[in-house]
UniProtKB/TrEMBL annotation:
InterPro entries on file: C-N_Hydrolase, C-N_Hydrolase_sf, UPF0012_CS
UniProt record similarity statement: Belongs to the carbon-nitrogen hydrolase superfamily. NIT1/NIT2 family.
Keywords recorded for this protein, A-Z: Hydrolase
Highest taxon of source: Bacteria
Protein name per Swiss-Prot or TrEMBL: Hydrolase
The species this protein was found in: Streptomyces flaveus
Domain CN hydrolase, chain residue ranges per copy: 1-242
Any one GO MF annotation of this record: hydrolase activity
Cited Gene3D superfamilies: Carbon-nitrogen hydrolase
Keyword Hydrolase annotated: yes
Lineage start: Bacteria, Bacillati, Actinomycetota, Actinomycetes, Kitasatosporales
Length: 267
């Protein structure tokens, strides 16, 4: 299976790039990944994950302009596309940090509203509502589980994803450079403890004065790093074997020995 993580550069005041222009630029990057099985974009790449003042003004409905552009890009490239996340405004006026997943025909296969909001009683934590649903998507070769950025710090979400069939955990993010060591550590931890692949796609650049970590990463079920990006905008492409998840879980069946917390299926 081939996955391409597009580590988009979002820069404060970069040549006056508008959100519409960025959508078109990113759509072109997606189309260039024709031949990949899965393409992944970062969190809130239209606005920047720390550009809190833009969430309300740039929020869009689920089936808004980003949906339309990304659906066509997925169809044109013939790829499964995790289009990162957008600031979504629902019909009641509530804001969510919402991820979109498209099939190779351009159909919306799933959406996921971020459950754990970052900010410690400010920023995203107060501006956006929390999602409630645990979401997986069945692809031809693997089942992906959806999480977003700050979710990475909450292992119980990933256990629930595994219990609902996830084999590959996909995490778009806008992770800050000052905590980059946590990004790498947590991605590897989530892979090891869940015996799953982790595909974690971050942004480059600076959002509202906050330098971004970049360093998108792909980790296998044993915690080995298969590929890692640098700090700047780039496309990180990796080939991996989805069958390794089942082999790992059979050879080292640690998930069967869980005693506390969420009960494994059938127990």
């Amino acid at each position: 299976m081939r996955a391409s993580l597009i580590q988009i550069g979002v820069y404060d005041g970069k040549g006056g790039e508008s959100i519409d222009a960025r959508r078109q630029r990113v759509a072109a990057l997606v189309r260039e990944q024709a031949g990949a099985d899965l393409v992944v974009l970062p969190e809130l790449w239209t606005t920047g994950a720390f550009a809190y003042e833009s969430f309300g003004t740039q929020a869009e409905p689920l089936h808004g302009p980003t949906y339309e552009v990304m659906a066509k890009a997925a169809s044109d490239a013939g790829v499964w596309l995790h289009a990162g996340s957008i600031p979504e405004r629902d019909p009641d006026g509530l804001l969510y940090n919402t991820s979109l997943v498209f099939s190779p025909s351009g159909e919306l296969a799933a959406s996921y509203r971020k459950i754990h909001r970052f900010g410690f009683d400010k920023g995203e934590a107060v501006l956006m509502s929390a999602g409630a649903d645990v979401v997986t998507v069945r692809l031809p070769s693997t089942t992906i589980g959806l999480a977003t950025c700050y979710d990475l710090r909450f292992p119980e979400l990933f256990r629930r994803l595994v219990d609902t069939g996830a084999e590959t955990l996909v995490v778009p993010a806008g992770w800050p450079e000052r905590r980059r060591s946590h990004w790498t550590l947590l991605a590897q931890a989530r892979a090891v403890e869940n015996q799953s692949y982790v595909l974690a796609c971050g942004t480059a650049g600076t959002h509202a004065g906050v330098p971004q970590a970049g360093h998108s990463i792909v980790v296998d079920p044993w915690g080995e790093v298969l590929a890692e990006a640098g700090a700047d905008e780039e496309v990180l492409t990796v080939e991996f074997d989805p069958g390794k998840v089942g082999v790992t879980r059979d050879q080292f069946p640690a998930l069967k020995d869980r005693m506390l917390g969420l009960e494994p299926p059938g127990r």
